[in-house]
Every structure is written in structure tokens, then in C-alpha cells.
Model the fold of this input.
Amino acid sequence: MSLRWIRESPAHWDDDKARIVGGEPPGSLPVGPHASGDLIPGDWWRVEDGGAVVGYGWLDPTWGDAEVLLAVAPEARGRGIGAFVLDHLEEEARTQGLNYLFNVVSEKHPRREAVTAWLVAHGFKASHEDNLLRRPVRQKR
Done:
């Protein structure tokens, strides 16, 4: 496996995003649906493995923190791609001077419990707000 982290600037909705991000039920993720070619907000990166798109990372900075989205193609799950995306999103947040990463797992998400457990296992903690998981951005030493 040879993963590549590629910034999309500007980011547009395309067939790969529709397949990987847009394939979830409406309302389960904070983005989409969009028409092909639409400009989409936030900072986007795609993950390629051997030229095939296998995942995405999204960072939306707000007031010193950033909401993040990690999406991995169903056929590529369980291979460490989500951790790869999270590590890279954290590095991107660090370079922007952000304090926290957070993720809101919608009640409509079909794998809500599994996604929440994965995030907690990767350093997120439940906050006082419903569904909000936070993780401090670790500074390099």
C-alpha cells in the first residue's frame, strides 16, 4: 500500500466524492449532495493508493478549532486509511495553528456507534455537547 495525500484546491464535487462521501444516507455527513463540478467549501484532501481514490479528509476551521470529516471507500476500510487521514488532518491543523479537531457524528449516520468508537480509540473524547467529539491538536516537540 502506497498512500498519497493530495490537496484539492479549489475542491469540486466529483464522481469519487459522490461514491465515497456522497454514498452515505442524506444528513449523515456534514457535506453534500452536490452536482458534479460544484465548488465545495472547506479544505479537502484526497487519498490515493496506486492511483485509485480510496478516501478523503476535510477540514473546516472555525474560531481556532476545526471540524473534520474522514471518509474511506467501503472496499478500502480496515487497512489503516482512516488513521492515515486523521494523522494528516492533524498535521494540517497544526500548520494552521488550530487548537482542536472535532467531529459530529450525526444520529442519522448508519454506523454511528462504530464511527464514534473508532474516533474515541483515536484520541477523541465526548464533550458536554451531544455528538461532539474533540481532540487537542498535539504540538510537535
About this structure: The CA atoms of residues 19 and 73 lie 8 Å apart.
